[in-house]
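Hi support team,

I submitted a single chain yesterday and got back a structure, but I'm not sure I'm reading the token output correctly. Could someone confirm the output below corresponds to the sequence I sent? I've pasted both exactly as they appear in my results page.

Thanks,
R.
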Amino acid sequence: MNNTAITFGPISLTLKAFLKQHLYSFVFILVDENTRKLCLPLLPKFEHQIIEIQAGEKYKTLETCQSIWMQLLAQKADRKALIINLGGGVICDMGGFAASCYKRGLDFIHVPTTLLAMVDATIGGKTGIDLANEKNMIGLFSPAKAVFVDPKFLNTLAKRQLNSGKAEMIKHGLIASDMHLENVFESKVISDALIQESIGIKQYIVQQDPLEQSMRKSLNFGHTFGHAIESLALRNGEDILHGEAVAFGMIYALKLSAKYTGLNVTSAKENIKKIEAIFGSYPLNKEKLSQLIQLAKNDKKNEGDQINFTLISRIGKFEINQALNEADLQVLLK
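Hi R., thanks for writing in. Yes, this is the structure output for that exact sequence:
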């Protein structure tokens, strides 16, 4: 499981070669209004049908999935059909989930068009949707048939979207490689080599632990509070991207690491300062912390009444299954 081939290079060559090797009855391309306009023209020419959904995390719902399924049904899609997810994390998460459920499973491939999707969302076989404004409550482990990464899609992105992806690359450095972390912070331009390096870190971790029983939990660094921040933003109608929420979550995970897993305080402060220089801050008060704690209690990785964090003891060394209670988290208000 999760031996998905990740191919790096011009989409005009890589995708066309794949389609020649596999004879699908139908090819559907899942897009939103943005990727239809900006990214679809960059694909090579081949026979296909379009399924379009609305852009944004707030549409990552069962209702949108039902719309996808109804369109597949109307087009008489059979089990030999292919879905190409052309977009960022929302498209890839939801497209993979929809494909995996329809007629008990269609092949799907990812063509990530955001930096975040390239280095994170499309790697590892996680698919899913949100439920009642809470992140990824419904989903499956279901690996894509293939992932095709072409950095030219990054030219369609605003700087904010690029920074959102950069947050996941920072996470990879914090949990696995001080050299990668330094390269990400120092690079003014995200190079192809840096993207491939980040993909390699996540791919290695996923291959060791495809179903998230141990090592793969390291990838949740910053995500326990990050997902809670996203859920709160959805509930309040705030505009916070996934990578931004993860960045804020990492700030708090670094503070908790300094308190509970022995991370050097100076190292924690230095990295917090670098993250805040890119993303700003997400100030907590007693009320907001309480809201985040309640949302974090719904995290899939929790057991009992405690909240399960991934922390670090030094840059590149993660500590999984760090169970903290509400009293432990009050340190974040100081």
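A quick pointer for reading it: The two ends are 44 Å apart (CA to CA). Let us know if anything else looks off.

Best,
Support desk
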